[in-house]
Amino acid sequence: MKRREFLKTGAIAIVGTAVATSGIIEASAAEEAAAQFSTLQPHEAQTLLQVARQIFPHRKLGDAPYWRVVSQLDGAAQSDPSVAKLLSDGVAQLDSSQGSKFIDLGNKHKVEALKSIETTPFFQKVRGVELQTLYSDPEVFKALKYQGASYAIGGYLRHGFNDIDWLPDPPESASPKLA
Amino acid sequence: MAKHELSDDSVIVVIGSGAGGGTLSNELCQKGFKVVLLEAGQRQSSATFHNDEWYAFNQLAWLDKRTTSGSWRVAKDFPNLPAWICKTVGGTTTHWAGASLRLQEHEFKARTYYSGIDGANLQDWPLTLAELEPYYAKAETKMGVTRTNDIPGLPGNNNFKVMYNGATKVGYKTVHTGRMAINSQPRDGRSGCWQLGFCFQGCKSGAKWSTLYTEIPKAEATGKLDLRPESMVMQIQHGANGKATGVLYADKDGHHQLQKARVVCVAGNSIETPRLLLNSSSSIFPNGLANSSGQVGKNYMRHTTGSVFGVFKKPVHFYRGTVMAGIIQDEAILDTKRGFTGGFELETISLGLPFTAAFVSPGAWGADYTDVLEQYPNMAAMWIVGEDMPQEKNAVTLHPTEKDKLGLPIPNVNYDDHANDLAMRTYAFKKGAAIYQAVGATQTIEVPPYPSTHNLGTCRQSENPGDGVCNKWGQTHDLKNLFVSDGSQFTTSAAENPTLTIVTLAIRQADYISDQCGKQNI
């Protein structure tokens, strides 16, 4: 399947696949991704991607999981016009606050711009959605070495629940052997 | 399952199906009473639980809007979520971590032992440890508590290994994998613990005791229990003689139903229980039901809590295995020389990545925070559980203007940390950090309290009817066939996780209700 075909299935699928195969998303792909949203305009989506990258910056992550955050925001905007307005107005405010568009600012100025609006409903909305989306993302689990759900493997009982070897084992009176 | 008539005024109505209400319902059914158990939430099962923190939170937590006020940090971090408790069959026993500790003798006599603390509205409990001991033993047997009844302790996980080594290095002596209502071996038709690591999300192995799959099915098997999920009680009604006569509730379709009752037992947790009593005011009880003392909703306690996270050079993977995998009990003592009164337990805690990001520093963002989160696999953590002081101004009240979808005023939870609470937390944070530093922590993090899971005291037991809402049986001072059956009864919070004591009081209350019904006193 070509990337063009992925695009039609929505931003979540396309960015996930792009990263899985190449490790980083190409700039052109990012533009294409930004064009795929239902409610957010391409510039708004690009800006929100950069906002998301500044709120929870992980250098080891490519853009893909952050695009999935933007996709969640787009979904929220689609189902609630007041969220669409909040995001649209928030991007406009960010673009007007520093003399140039937010996406053109250096990292330091991006942080300053966000700091100045961190108590606003716009910032809180983006942060809140990002918190729940980014840190529930399987790719982020992997990058931060969180194994997550264990029911399917029968729990961690046989999968390392007590495996660290850099400290001595407590005595059995404190920590009985497996019954 | 039984189906009792709405007009049947011989039934006992229990409101809430958690540790208190679920246990009480089963105990009463086993004695042959007809019980209608009204639960606001839906019924889940181990099969429908998910190893996913946000999914489970949305599935199980009580998310109806509440407001907060006061100086506690929860009001800033989680203004509409004062408590992390559950709205589901089984209540917060689906979410609890399983720690099952008896209260200590001196903790039943807080006024006697902790006298002279400014602003603390202390009372002694109207009962003693000796009176409760036989019932504690029954509760431990029922729940299969490890390290009782010859049930072995659970094996410790990595998080406990770090706690144990650090704690013993700084000189603590009573450090072990706890007394847990989690099967260390198969028991009572339930499996041993799989070390899933999702105790808070509903136990998918069923190893952790919950009324959802122990008390409630056992009660159903008697043919006496009529469990009605998605039934939100709006009002407790009473007659001119000052006795409760029934309850008005909204069923799952939103239709109002009136269930008649011989006895009404309220176990809605320490926020909903006083809210319901306050929302049941009448011309005879203008300040709310059972509130002649004015103490309904007052003296709200939530334990002095906080967490210490330690970051290490090597991996810990603290999310693997039981959440409360071990305990340090040396600080849960009567010793006022530490600069505060009351004691605290230190218990391991773990959070998955989603909730670590949400709770380690609520509201934080930016590179400083993500630098911390990138240490996730190398974290260990412990939770402080300490006795907090009852204060009259710490209260659940009815919101003056905001109403829920049924038109009832929503609850506001006001809480100011007492100076004693603050001194304890500061001390405990230092001790926790020292424990982790003793085994090489490169960083320790003081994590502020989560929304409250231990909600206590808002309908407290008292010897004198002027000092509290109910007597030592949980029977309200004002209406003799109205009982409080949850943690609201607690006169003081003590240092221990409250579930075992809630279950113990429920077993004892069932005996009392049976006795009083037999004597035709109620």
What does this molecule look like?
The complex is a heterodimer of chains A (179) and B (522). Chain A has 179 residues and is mainly α. Chain A is 57% helix and 0% strand. Chain A has helices spanning 3-8, 11-22, 27-34, 42-55, 64-79, 81-97, 107-115, 121-134, 138-143. Chain A is elongated and about 65 Å long. The N and C termini of chain A lie far apart (51 Å). Mean pLDDT of chain A is 86; it is low at 1-25. By secondary structure, chain B is an alpha/beta fold. Chain B has helices at residues 19-30, 53-60, 74-77, 110-113, 129-143, 158-169, 215-221, 269-278, 353-359, 367-373, 419-437, 499-518, and strands at 12-15, 35-38, 67-69, 175-176, 225-228, 232-238, 244-250, 256-260, 263-266, 304-311, 327-328, 344-348, 379-386, 395-403, 409-414, 443-447, 482-484. A 6-stranded antiparallel beta sheet of chain B has the order 4-11-12-13-10-16, with helices on one face. Chain B has a 5-stranded parallel beta sheet with strand order 5-2-1-9-17, covered by helices on one side. In chain B, strands 3-15-14 form a 3-stranded mixed beta sheet, with helices on one face. In chain B, a hairpin with a 5-residue loop joins strand 14 and strand 15. The longest helix of chain B has 20 residues, at 499-518. The model of chain B has no long low-confidence stretch (mean pLDDT 97). The interface between A and B is large, with 47 and 55 residues.
